[in-house]
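Dear support,

I submitted the protein below through the web form. The confirmation email said the job was done, but the results page showed an empty box. After a refresh the structure appeared. I'm attaching both so you can tell me whether what I see now is the final result or a partial one.
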Amino acid sequence: MQKNDKFYTFLFAQKYSKDRIVIKRVALRKSYLQFTSLGVIFALALGAAAFGINKVIINSNFADTVAHVSALRQVSAQPLEQPQPELQQPAEIASNSGGPEENADVTGENSEIDSEVAVILKNSDPANVPTMWAHLGKINNEFGFRRNPFGGRAYEFHPGMDIDGERGDDVIAPANGTVIWAGYKGGYGNMVEIDHGNGLTTCYGHMSKLETEVGKTITRGQLIGLIGSTGRSTGPHLHFEVRLNEKPINPRHFLPPEPTDLTSIAK
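What the results page shows now:
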């Protein structure tokens, strides 16, 4: 028997006379022999019957071949073990979250943001830059892509931060400015927007009550509304957003680190 990648070739010797022996060749596909070792025996018997063979010439690897085919037969009898996909723990979805549905293209984040923020910090009155927290609470969602808080496996772009709170908690202005929106606005629910100059604005969404109106001049630390769950929201929290030239950027460009122990903060 000779081997190649696709066939087993068997050599059969047929004796015609005392001095004459004819060698005949039979090639069988390996795939025909992979399911049962009986296939080898059947092939030999068929060849012998067809050609009147008196002797089969086969190399010394025949026993190994039969053993190999028998092993394949045993394997083929077992159910195929399908590879299992790696299970990944789904990202946790915060219970109190929400915000408007945004397209990722609206984000103003790019390699130049840091330099633009540095210019604002250098040239603006510090009182007009939102460098304090409008509300202190657990951060349920950061700026950027996140799992859809309303379920499913889809991801969406979140243009602000979700800060946890109780209904009725105070929301204060983190910088001086002028109110340019105070009312209901789609996914934001009850929202206040403040213009701080130099293309910088801040938005405060989902509030249960507004404590200001359009055109009002706001000072740092002034009450502008109360936390709620209006608009596209799954529970009471503040959606806080910073925009530079009408495009959302990460509020952490300006905000200081939040306290590590929020339980010590007075309500």
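Response: this is the final, complete result; the empty box was a page-load delay. Confidence is low (pLDDT under 50) at residues 48-60, 79-91.
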